[in-house]
Amino acid sequence: MKKMSWRKRLFYSYIFIGVIPLLVLGAFFYYGNRMTERKELEKSNSAMLSQVLQKLDYVTEKMNSAAYHFSGSEIEEQLNDVRYERAEIDEGLVASQLMTYSEIVGDTENDVKPILYLRGDKSVYTMDGKIPYSEFEKDMNQYGDLNEASFFGTINSVKDDRSLKIGEGKRAGEESSIVYFLYPIPYMNNIPIATIGFGFDSDSLNALIKTYYTADSAIYIFNERYLTLFQCGQENCSGLSRKALDDLAIKYRRTGGKLVEERVDGGSFIIMREISANSGLSVVSITDSKKFYQSSSEFASWYIFLIAVLFIGGILLSLVLSQSNYKPIQKLVQKIVDQDTMADQEQQGINEFEIITNKWADVQNKNEELSALLNRQRPMVVASCLRRILKGKFKTSEEMEATLKSANINLSYRYNFVILLPIPVEDSFEEDKNLRIMTVLAGFMQPFIHVYGLDMLKDNGIAVIVNCEERTAGEKNVDIRLSVADHLCRELETRHEISIPFYIGRIYEDVMDINRSFLESAAIASDYHMLGNQKVILFEEIGYEEQNIQYPILEQALFIQCLKQANEEAALKALDNMIGEIEPLKSFVITQCLCFDIINITIKTLDQLKGFELKNVDLKKLITFKSLPEFREKMAGLTIEMCRQFAEFKDSRNNERRSEILDYVNCHYGDSSMGLESVADEFGVSSNYLSRFFKQETGCSFIQYVTMIRMDRARELLVNSNKQIKEIVAEIGYIDVANFVRKFKGYEGVTPGQYREKMRI
C-alpha cells in the first residue's frame, strides 16, 4: 500500500491542529448567534400580531361605546315612536349620527360603513340617507349574497353583539368581502327595536393589518364563535394551496400555543395565534419558516466571510509550514534524481527512490502526451456536445448527463438560457474576431454562473449557453439574462471594440429545454427588426409589438424557427400551443380564420427556404378541414413531412458543398494564386464562412490545410522523382523557393535536399 508523503503528513497535521478547531469553534458561535436571532424574530412577529389584535379590540370597544351612546340618544326615542305610532323619523339626524360614528370608529369616514335598521321595516338607514332594503341588498352584491349569509334574519333577531362575514365575491379582479359588527338597539335590552351595524370591507381590514403587521404572512381573523371573518396574504405562502392554508388556520384557531411550527406538503410553516379576552376575536398568522426567520442583519454574512478568510489563511499558512519543513526531504529526493549510477544509490540504501523517480518520469511523459492529445481533441468534443444540446438531439436526460460528464461540461445550476450573438453573412469580420468573442466567453467569471460558447457555422452566429443559480441578480433583482448580457457587451466593447446585438431566449429549469431557448433566440435573430435597434432583445419582447394577435406571437415565431431548423418535436409542440389557444373560442368563423393564418405562415416559411421544394404534399387539402381536431391532424402531418424533407435537403446540400469545396482545393492547390478569398468567390460564400467551415470540417484553418496538401505532394515528388527543387516548388503552388524551404524544414526538421537524400538511402 502506498504511504502518504511527508509533505502531506505535515500539511494535514497543521490542518487538524489549527484550522479544524477554528472552524468548529466558529460553527458553535455562529449557531448560538443564529438561535438568539431566531428568538428575537419570534418575539418581534408575535408583538406585531398582538398589536393587530389590540387595534381590533380598540375598534370593537369604540363600536360598543357607539351602540351604548345610540341607545341613549333621542333617535332611539324616535324609533319607538316610528314603530308604535307610525311617526316620521328625522333621516338627516340619523345620517349625521351614523357619519359621526363612522368617524369615531374608523380612521377616516370611508373605513366604516354604518347602517341602522328598524326591525320589521323594509328600509335601511345609511350615511347617505334612507334606502329600501332591496337597494341595500343590491349594493352589497359586490361583496356577496346577503341571503347566503342570513343577513336579513340576523339583523331582525340579534339580541347581543355579533359579527358576520358577507361574501367572497369578485370585485375589480380581486377577492373582496365585508364584515359587519351588529348591535341590538337599545343595547343590552331584552326587547330590541332596531339593529345598528358597522361594516368593514376587505380593503379597510387589510390596511389595518398592514399598518401593524409587516411580515409576509397569511392572516386569518375569527370571531367569538371561531367563524372566519377575514383572511388575506395567502399569496405569501406559495407552497400551500388555499384549502390547505384554510385547514391549517382552522386547526389552530382554538388550540395550540402562541407559536407552533408544522410541516405541510414538504414545507415548514410557523403558526402564531392571539386571542382577545375582551372582544373574543382571535388572529392567526401562517408564515413560511424561511420568510419568518429571514433576517436583515449583515452579521451572518460578515461572520462567514471572516471565517472563510481565516480558513484560507490557515490553509496557506499550513502550506508554507509544510513546504518549509519538507525542504530537507525534497533535497534528498532531488539528489537521488540527479544520481546516474545505481551503485551509489544502493550503497545509500535508498534504491526505492530511484524506482519511484523513473516511474514518475515515465508516467509524466505519457501524461503529457495524453494531455496534449486531449487538449487538441477537447474543444471538438465540447463543441459537438454543445451542438447536440442546442439542436435537441438528446432523447433522455440520462443520455445528456452522461455526455456532459464525459465532455467535462458543468450545467449543475438550476436555470438555463441561450444567448445568440448573430454574425451577418455580409459582415466583413476579420478571421480572428470570432476567436476574440470566444476568448471573452471563456474568461467569463461570475459566482454561480457557467457560460459555454459555440461557433454556430451554419446559423451564422455564436450561441452561448448560460447555466445559473438565480433568475435575478443584484440588489435591484435585475433579470439575470440582462445582467449577463450587459457584462459580456461591456467586455466585448472594452477589450476588442466589438459591438453586436444579443438575442436571448427564455429561462428554463430543465436542461432538456435548452434547445427550446436556443430556438427562441434564433427566432428573434430571424425577425429582430421588429424590435428596432435594441442592444439586448429578450424573446418575450417580440410579443409586445403585436397587440391584436389572436394566439401567442411567441409560439408563432418559435414555430417558424422550428420549421427552419427542421426540429420536428419542437415544431409540433409549438403547433399544439397555438392550437391550444384557439380551442376555447366558440365562433367557428374566428377559429377558421386563425387556422388559415397558421397555414399562411407555414407556406410563407416554406417560400423562404431557398432551393427547397416540398414534394408529395398537397397543400390544398389543408383548407378542407371541418373541425379543429381534423386541422390539427393535417397540420401535424404537414409539419412532420416538411421537417423530414428539409432535414434531408440540408444534409444533402451540406455534404455536396463540403465535397465540392474540398475537391476544388485538392485539385487546385498547385495554383499559386489560390487563396481564401478566391475559393470563397468561387463558391459564392464569405471568407469568414469558408474559414469557419474548414475549422469545423477538418480541424485546421484553410492555410494549414492547403500547406498540408502541398507538403504531402512535395514529399512525394522529392522521393519519387528527379525534379529539381525549384520545379517542385512551382508545381505545388509556391513562388518563392526560400519560403518553401523554410516551411518544409518547419514541418520535417530538415531541408528538402536533406529529406531526399535521407529517404533514398
From TrEMBL:
Residues 659-758 form the HTH araC/xylS-type domain. SMART domains: HTH_ARAC. It comes from the Bacteria. Keywords: DNA-binding, Membrane, Transcription, Transcription regulation, Transmembrane, Transmembrane helix. GO terms for molecular function: DNA-binding transcription factor activity; sequence-specific DNA binding. The chain crosses the membrane at residues 12-31, 300-321. Pfam families: HTH_18. This is Helix-turn-helix protein.
